[in-house]
Amino acid sequence: MFTGGKYDEKEIERFSVDDGSHFSITGEILPSLGATRSFHRNSVGRFVISPFDPHYRTWEAFLVLLVYYTAWVSPFEFGFLVRPSGLLTITDNIVNAIFFVDIVLTFFVAYLDKTSYLIIDSKKEIATRYVTTWFLLDLISTIPSEFVRVILPNNLQSYGYVSMLRLWRLRRVSRFFARLEKDKNYSYFWTRCAKLVSVTLFVIHMAACIFYRLAAHYFNPTETWIGSVWEDFKTESLYSQYIKSLYWSITTMATVGYGDLHAVNPNEMTFDVMYMLFNLALTSYIIGNMTNLVVHAATRTRQFRDTIHAASSFAQRNRLPVRLQDQMIAHLTLKYRTDSEGLHQQEAIDSLPKAIRSSIANYLFYSLVDRVYLFRGVSNDLLFQLVSEMKAEYFPPKEDVILQNEAPTDMYFLVSGVVEHIVHKNAIEHVVGEARTGDVVGEIGVLCYRPQLFTVRTKRLSQLLRLNRTAFLNLIQANVGDGTIIMNNVLQVARLDIFFFLVSF
Amino acid sequence: MFTGGKYDEKEIERFSVDDGSHFSITGEILPSLGATRSFHRNSVGRFVISPFDPHYRTWEAFLVLLVYYTAWVSPFEFGFLVRPSGLLTITDNIVNAIFFVDIVLTFFVAYLDKTSYLIIDSKKEIATRYVTTWFLLDLISTIPSEFVRVILPNNLQSYGYVSMLRLWRLRRVSRFFARLEKDKNYSYFWTRCAKLVSVTLFVIHMAACIFYRLAAHYFNPTETWIGSVWEDFKTESLYSQYIKSLYWSITTMATVGYGDLHAVNPNEMTFDVMYMLFNLALTSYIIGNMTNLVVHAATRTRQFRDTIHAASSFAQRNRLPVRLQDQMIAHLTLKYRTDSEGLHQQEAIDSLPKAIRSSIANYLFYSLVDRVYLFRGVSNDLLFQLVSEMKAEYFPPKEDVILQNEAPTDMYFLVSGVVEHIVHKNAIEHVVGEARTGDVVGEIGVLCYRPQLFTVRTKRLSQLLRLNRTAFLNLIQANVGDGTIIMNNVLQVARLDIFFFLVSF
Amino acid sequence: MFTGGKYDEKEIERFSVDDGSHFSITGEILPSLGATRSFHRNSVGRFVISPFDPHYRTWEAFLVLLVYYTAWVSPFEFGFLVRPSGLLTITDNIVNAIFFVDIVLTFFVAYLDKTSYLIIDSKKEIATRYVTTWFLLDLISTIPSEFVRVILPNNLQSYGYVSMLRLWRLRRVSRFFARLEKDKNYSYFWTRCAKLVSVTLFVIHMAACIFYRLAAHYFNPTETWIGSVWEDFKTESLYSQYIKSLYWSITTMATVGYGDLHAVNPNEMTFDVMYMLFNLALTSYIIGNMTNLVVHAATRTRQFRDTIHAASSFAQRNRLPVRLQDQMIAHLTLKYRTDSEGLHQQEAIDSLPKAIRSSIANYLFYSLVDRVYLFRGVSNDLLFQLVSEMKAEYFPPKEDVILQNEAPTDMYFLVSGVVEHIVHKNAIEHVVGEARTGDVVGEIGVLCYRPQLFTVRTKRLSQLLRLNRTAFLNLIQANVGDGTIIMNNVLQVARLDIFFFLVSF
Amino acid sequence: MFTGGKYDEKEIERFSVDDGSHFSITGEILPSLGATRSFHRNSVGRFVISPFDPHYRTWEAFLVLLVYYTAWVSPFEFGFLVRPSGLLTITDNIVNAIFFVDIVLTFFVAYLDKTSYLIIDSKKEIATRYVTTWFLLDLISTIPSEFVRVILPNNLQSYGYVSMLRLWRLRRVSRFFARLEKDKNYSYFWTRCAKLVSVTLFVIHMAACIFYRLAAHYFNPTETWIGSVWEDFKTESLYSQYIKSLYWSITTMATVGYGDLHAVNPNEMTFDVMYMLFNLALTSYIIGNMTNLVVHAATRTRQFRDTIHAASSFAQRNRLPVRLQDQMIAHLTLKYRTDSEGLHQQEAIDSLPKAIRSSIANYLFYSLVDRVYLFRGVSNDLLFQLVSEMKAEYFPPKEDVILQNEAPTDMYFLVSGVVEHIVHKNAIEHVVGEARTGDVVGEIGVLCYRPQLFTVRTKRLSQLLRLNRTAFLNLIQANVGDGTIIMNNVLQVARLDIFFFLVSF
């Protein structure tokens, strides 16, 4: 027996508490169509971690933070530092150690095979895949620079280059943002912006460091971009050096190019040429992304404006009476407001499968429809099915819902608001009745298949459930007994109605 | 009695005068679906103002004007003025007083709860919400700067900062534009442009003021962007200082960057770096918006061009006779012109509910269809329903509306223009008749369900009402009496027609 | 008597020669819906010219050319010339005279009322409208500058300003481009580009002239953008002056801003600020337009790529046999090629009204279908109706058109290419027949309503006409006699076929 | 006998090996509609090469490589070299010789007539077309520069110009990219990027060469962009000259414009003006393309976010129980994941013709459905047709597939996963059964046309085949015998089921 509208609080509580987490399906993998031919396991073996494990996800997010640190520190060491200094050495080595832990961990994390969409949890296959792909690069990027300096002869130069190898870790950030973009808990707009800002800041910082290194290592310091302006730049504070490098970098990147600082020797020119080419691509990419976001944000408003404009033009061109014009505009404005409040009701519901839609409709409307006079004594089964077929609609005040004499295609149940019954006689409108929450209008036309008796017009903002005649008849045909009950209900009430109505004229 | 087409002028007048304002529904709030479970009040309590009150809206618009004043004056005071001067002090304090009034007022304005979409009018809740959110910032931004100078020891510096606090008021402007964009009385394009221009001008002005302040407060005036070019810049006129600051600001913002003025000391560089980064975002945003507007404006024309191009290519590739090609192009061009004149007739009408569509159709076409010979003696009810089913279509001159021998799917009523009846005999076309306003064509085919007797071709631009056979039959089935009348009408007239037609060959 | 497929060459010739021009409907105005209520005349009175008159259109195009001349000369005179010189004076006055003629002419040109869409041809109304709107500006912009110099005291200065008034004529160009964009005889892409290039060149030229004038009229020539670099700039050749101005103008406009030339005095700075702001809008507009054009051009290719990609992924993921994969890709590729050759066949045809579509189908396919054995002896009427229901489809080689045992929903007529009949027996395919142009496949399944007997597979690229079973039966029901003939036809041929087929196994 | 699901490995192998290449249809031409009126040959005559010949295609791709060489070398020779040097002369002449071979070859390559879409293979027509169009330009661009120097008097200058004529070959690259964009074997994104990078690099290189030539040939070397900074620039190394030119070129192109190098004499200014104008167009084009790619890439994610957002808002606004909310979100997320894994299953399949869709459905599901108890003893024909009507759907865990009491519109076959049968009794849910792979749910409701007996809910991620009641009944009507078998099957099993079910309460 149907329980629609009767979920008690406790039950809801239960669902939310112990079932809530089970509905997260991001961790599972779709089997291919035709299951008998392919076999997928969604769980992983012992001592192997699923790549969708929440703890592993947190670990990955933590590593992304460290990557941000690396992204700032590595180019900085490359450009400005000759040898590592106290604090930086310590933090660098701690970060390296953490990434080394991740390397070890990776041998125990199952992976998703891209072609078969299978989760591979065989330790051998995991190891083979990792060793043949990114293992070496990952390992090299965790080697402490002190160790390198001991091994390599030209230890000063190499310090910077080893540092740069760590940028290999940046690939984690791009994967991180790709996942964030699809996560409904984070705003798409801000995720996208954060990504663009991260990229831009990194590029500027990186270029600043390279620019400075080029100048610092050039044989003739006065023939460099910075030395030609400040001859004693090497003795300045690190902050002053960095801010000047950053200033030139962003001046070039933003294509401002004041010209107070500019490339002087061929090395700088070569790098600058490549940097400007890259910036051309980057700024295009930023503009493209911003356009994407702006167009997206503006679509809804534009559609509304277009529709309203078309309706107004149509009305004016055909000199429709003001009352009709107002009805048109009011209806379209209401429709848009419903949307702009974040509902898209019908759209969202329509994309769901039938069972969920029925559940929603019954949860919302079953108790109301159950009390309608028309369905007194009708079986729960039919009622359940009828409610699933109903569509909720809003009508602004003073809008006609049904016109007198029109063909009976729908009946309406009032959820909220008030509507009037109006009869046209000798071109004068007579209000002959009113309907409120729980009443039904247009049912006599639909059941007796004759032109509607009254014009039905809203008195204030009303919510109505529309039930289509064809859908209604289809359901009645399969429940003949209930059909008779409904007809009896309507005849008892309606006869009196019509009787009084005819008398009143 | 249907009154379609008979709204007298007086009635229309009445509607427009005393009902016009009631149709504005922007002030109301949608109840959630299933009204019996939630309860919404749309009216607010005594001594509490609705946020949708027209007077309150006007007050808000007035405040926006004052915000524009603040947006210009505050950065200017921050950058260029050491102490407030006569007139400026007075206007500043008047503006502050007005905003103080608004703070008091806010305690009496109901607000819309974002999660439940309820209007909250409890004074306690309003006060709690305001005090816990923006009250303090609003209050601080109205403190007169004279008062601050007395309190704080370092009174000169603080003058500018207190001034800057007032920019907090800018949030009003963004809300104002958001509302304007959705208002059909203002052009979307120009609203959007006004917003972009406002933002751009504010940013340039703001940056100019900050740039100047940075230079004016630097310990060594010759090591500033302005002092390194004009050493005695502090003695220049305020206008000259301002125009130079503005000039550098826009030079940087537009990425022109002549380089005659450029950052010199680290402070300026730091600010300039941030300014250029911000500009990168701002110009992307401007370009994104412009692209949005351009694409929107061009969509219609492009669609027209694509359709015409496809039709021409098809015709040429399949070597269709010139007459057919001309018909195709003429029809598509006409269709587009109908659109470009701002009608989108069918589109606009289709998005309205059935009752409004019926009203429109009856207002426009009832009186014409009432006089058609086919419907002589037919009940008003049926006529009303038939008119609701008709679709108005334009046909360019010399286009075939009906082809001889084709299956009878539609009949057409002439609203304007002239069409010819044409009979093909031995591959020669014979014109055997003509139809004008109020005539009907194709009805014999439809009623007798036999291939059309004539080709019907327009002689000039014609407007026709199309009535689909299926829709027509469905309505007739429910009105058997009227159906017989229609058949009699058609037999009386048609028999003669066909008789004369057969004789003529 | 249907004449489809029998238009003789002479007839086609006749259409194209004497009717061609009548199909141009751009000159006519749509009446509003419901013609009996409003009255529109499409012709204009005596001695009044229609605004859509071809001769008047040519005159307008000629004036646009002169506007281009004005757009170049006016700013040039404003910026560089102190007094008019020989040749320029003469051409200027000729152009002025022609525009004066246009002013007189305008009093005789009917206009289109924007609100009622009526052509107003009353001379009084035309004159009233013109005098109250643009007459004065038009008139002032045609006054010869010599005349102005005599009247005004400060005649040197005024020469330039009078010249600038003529830019009022530019409004013609914008109207001209708006019309060109909708004209199918001109490429949309190039029209749009021409418009953008025109605007950009004009802005650069204009700014160059104003920049030079600012420098030339400044009290201290060495404190100007040009004088601070070339002190004796006033004695240089006109060409040198112009190219330097243009160089600075474009340097600023394109935001390159080398800085070799830059604003020096406050006047220049003020203008430069405004110029840069305007350029920000203009470049955004150019980028927006380019994006619009690029996105438009790329849409089709992108859709194709997406579809192909989706199909490939689906096939690989579900491990479909190679043969099926190939069929899928081949079909989609063919579909796209049909589009890319500029046909969009079905799309273009579907947007046309039924009568035109029937004409096209009959012109193309009637003669072929007439010769199909199935329709031997069938009436022309039915054949005409059947052909209208058929859809032409291309199939790549080796694609299955019909599968053995599938439900019979369609039959196919071969227009070109070859198809094989294949029977599956014990998982082996036997080719049991072949069909060529004029044959029909799948008819036995459709007519006898039983699963298809053969798999039908194309041997090479084939064109087939698809006829849906439901559409076919609907037409047959209304022509019972013809239905019997068709059944007889099929039984005579098919029985033998099936007989031989059964024997062969 | 249907062979679905029984393609043995050998057969698949055979298809892929000897048929694979035949499905490539890019080489064929579509006949126009109505084949009897036009005649197309797809093969070409003897000694004539088809333009779609794979060998010829490879030859064209090879030539494109040589064009890249020419595109770099020609401007370089034009700008920097006075006379050809050793190695360059040799390679130049080899390349010229290869292009000469291509000229000869072109006389033997058939071409596609753009208006009739016919392949023209008459040698005379090929020759006529080539000679009257591009032959002369092609020929001139292959003349060796040594030869030119002998003929022309002023041989030094001419060397560069002859070199530039070879850029005529660039038109090949644009055709090459147009073809690559449509080729599914290459990524659209990277093809497009490669094209933009090629264009940008060529423009920068070209401008660099022209800039240098302008400076090198100016009468006063100190009044040039390069000479005014480095007086002895002509004695510098070629590399230094080139990198400086390139540096200025890109500085201008990217609108950075440092100003350390800038146009000095009118010649340079004139070229620079044109270069900047061109760059305005080029950067707009690059941004437009990038926007196109970004918007394309982001569409899918945005749609997903919009849908999820709408559903969440709807749920919160109407206070749906948490269980329903979770079902909604889980369903939409699953749907999106299916898409993001590159399937678009339904979309891709729906755009294919019926025969291919049936083949796919049968290949995937026939063997599973064959084993369902419902279809025991049913003919293969009906099974084949039923499988074609089924749609595969994924359901996330704990989602309702069928609701108790709802109208029976579909039945479902389990491909994978597990579902529970649940009965609501006194608002408590009782699990009364479970179904697994190969089971069918909802069949009793559909066959007996009564409300569903159970709620069916997934226990884990499940794949179900949905069969619509109407489609099912239509097929059964045409196979009455099989219908009886199915009913017997259902009654045997279901009766027991219902019996036990009723007993259990």
TrEMBL record, chains A, B, C, D:
Compartments, as annotated in UniProt: Membrane
Coiled coil: none
Entry-linked InterPro entries: cNMP-bd_dom, cNMP-bd_dom_sf, Ion_trans_dom, K_chnl_volt-dep_EAG/ELK/ERG, KAT/AKT, RmlC-like_jellyroll
GO MF annotations, alphabetized: voltage-gated potassium channel activity
Main location: membrane
Keywords of this entry: Ion channel, Ion transport, Membrane, Potassium, Potassium channel, Potassium transport, Transmembrane, Transmembrane helix, Transport, Voltage-gated channel
SUPFAM superfamilies from the UniProt entry: cAMP-binding domain-like, Voltage-gated potassium channels
GO CC annotation, single: monoatomic ion channel complex
Transmembrane segments: 61-82, 94-112, 189-215, 273-295
Pfam families assigned: cNMP_binding, Ion_trans
Membrane topology label: Multi-pass membrane protein
Record domain Cyclic nucleotide-binding: where: 374-476
Family: Belongs to the potassium channel family. Plant (TC 1.A.1.4) subfamily.
Domain notes: The segment S4 is probably the voltage-sensor and is characterized by a series of positively charged amino acids. The pore-forming region H5 is enclosed by the transmembrane segments S5 and S6 in the Shaker-type (1P/6TM) and contains the GYGD signature motif which seems to be involved in potassium selectivity.
Function per UniProt: Potassium channel.
Subunit structure: The potassium channel is composed of a homo- or heterotetrameric complex of pore-forming subunits.
Listed name of the protein: Potassium channel
Organism: Linum tenue
Taxonomic lineage: Eukaryota, Viridiplantae, Streptophyta, Embryophyta, Tracheophyta
